[in-house]
Design a protein that fits this description.
Arc Repressor Mutant, subunit A; 315 residues; seven-stranded mixed sheet; alpha+beta; elongated; Aminopeptidase; DNA-binding; 18% strand; 2 domains
DNA sequence: ATTAGTTATGTAACTTGTTACGTAAAAGAA
DNA sequence: TTCTTTTACGTAACAAGTTACATAACTAAT
């Protein structure tokens, strides 16, 4: 089994932590028997909390010990069945059920304290013998994970890996259909297709590239997942247009890579200004444009109906 | 909740380990969704083992990954329901069920490997950020606990604590009844009471102390839990006798403490030899006597029927 | 060759939590 | 005030394992 952890590597950290925890908890039960303390090991956190503080409510205990309330509810019920609980419904807020340990339960405390001390000594002994302190390691780990969840970290790693595999390539005729498809995907989702769209989407070569523009396609493992076009307005001004990234690939910074490439291209073509037209509903898109350096400008009407914002980048 | 761990201290190590493990495993499930790998997180160890090695049996997998066989059995069943398993009953030992991943299952491997790599990177990142490495700490901890279980360690600590509270005191008349009781407890358990017992147990003062012997009682929290007597044979030879420790207090080295005290007393009384008579059935007792320095001697008949071994300590 | 023990596996029930959901009481908003 | 939302808590169902037990197939010992 240990070999399994070694070959699988640290991916099994969760499983391994859990196994070790289970083992310790299992032994804890045996220890309770040893000390003649008629408590179940799992009752301990609840018992301990109640011993520290009178008139706890179920939810209070749950938040203190980090369980859910149904868990505490069940444990209290079991402890009650064992004759250890005093229910006081006297609270003025009728929702709360305040509970206390009764005399029988409190009488167990001295034995329990001895047990705890011995257990603590035993753990300290183990921790002293290990060169890497698991208690401190857990504190560190919990701190780090509170900061940024493991899931989020994996997401980031994935993004980095995928980003490395994304290639920005020039448009060629075999991309025609995909180019249209990618653009229709988002237009149809948020708006309706306008006549102006039809023209440039059906004949990109004629309408965009021939007049001095450019089109880039983003490819991932041989699949085209995004596109972006540069349309010539005059010798020094170009329009960034037809930016589209398929839904499944969103969040991987494909748009950013396409934008960067198109800006570079515009510079090479002699532009000193790029503008674009968009809609404020498309918040991720607007964010992307801002990240690329575009700023909002006013006062120039757009030929597109869906457009309600114009942005520019000067350089 | 974190405060709870701080006040309870390291006794809650088990719970805490388990919680952290659970959290990581919970996130693992989300990650599987992210990568479009149609495996349940809990299937992973089984899947991984089968991918590594063809024609595994249920029990084999179970031992490799450190689960019980019913657990693996269930997981395989679930994976089969998901259409990922090839059952081969072809093994010549009819008890084994050899299982394999089918093509559909193997096709998931590339995606899974990517996922594992990203997860590994994420974990390495966290481990790099922590000053105390939890992975190494767990290895240390598992090594230590394999060496000596937590239970055993607590047992030792308890023994030490209790030993400190045990007092060896001189016999006085109010101990008469308890003295008899303690001895009858073990005699009646293993043998039958002999006439010779009756005399010394009923009149310890007259039969043991008056003729120049001594009796010690071991007391724990005001309760007498053991006794041991020294009977004068001649000016330089004494018999160690009536060694008895109540069952509930056994394993706490009370016998050893009593033995040490009685040997010291004998020296003070001018003895150069102590002998005792016992029965080889009573292995813990014989062990104790050996630990006290007694060695087996032969050839001297005993007045007790139950005696079949004689031991001596010369000094 | 027969009997007794061991091994591989399946099934059922239990363990220790968790979500999901319903209900009563309180708090806030109109 | 009345209506909506939130809070406390119970119950039910689920999760991911476990132990306990039954059974079939092999192995070993007489």
């Amino acid at each position: 089994m240990n070999e399994f952890f070694n070959t699988v590597g640290k991916v099994a950290l969760g499983t391994r932590l859990r196994k070790l925890g289970d083992q310790l908890m299992e032994e804890a039960s045996q220890i309770y028997d040893l000390y003649d303390v008629p408590l179940q090991a799992k009752w301990f956190p609840v018992y301990y909390t109640m011993a520290q503080q009178k008139d706890c409510s179920i939810t209070q205990i749950a938040t203190i010990i980090g369980h859910t309330h149904p868990s505490v509810s069940k444990i209290i019920k079991e402890m009650d069945a064992a004759g250890l609980i005093n229910y006081n419904k006297k609270s003025k807020d009728g929702r709360f059920t305040t509970v206390n340990l009764n005399d029988k339960a409190m009488a167990l405390l001295p034995n329990l304290i001895e047990q705890l001390e011995d257990a603590r000594d035993a753990i300290e002994e183990v921790l002293d013998k290990t060169t890497h302190n698991i208690w401190l390691a857990m504190e560190d780990m919990e701190f780090e994970l509170d900061n940024k969840s493991f899931y989020k970290r994996v997401l980031e790693k994935r993004k980095i890996r995928l980003a490395q595999e994304i290639k920005i390539i020039d448009f060629s005729t075999e991309h025609s259909e995909r180019f249209k498809e990618l653009n229709l995907e988002w237009i149809e989702k948020y708006f309706t297709v306008e006549p102006l769209d039809e023209a440039s989407l059906n004949k990109p070569k004629k309408k965009i590239i021939k007049p001095g523009g450019h089109i880039y396609m983003a490819e991932y493992k041989g699949v085209v997942i995004g596109t972006c076009a540069l349309i010539k307005f005059n010798d020094t001004t170009y329009e960034l247009s037809k930016m589209a990234v398929t839904e499944a690939a969103q969040g991987l910074n494909v748009g950013y890579a396409l934008g960067k490439a198109i800006i570079k291209k515009a510079k090479n073509l002699g532009a000193n200004k790029i503008y674009l037209e968009s809609n404020t509903q498309l918040k991720p898109a607007i964010n992307l444009y801002q990240k690329l350096g575009f700023t909002k400008v006013v006062g120039i009407p757009s030929p597109y109906e869906r457009s309600n914002i114009r942005m520019e980048l000067n350089f």
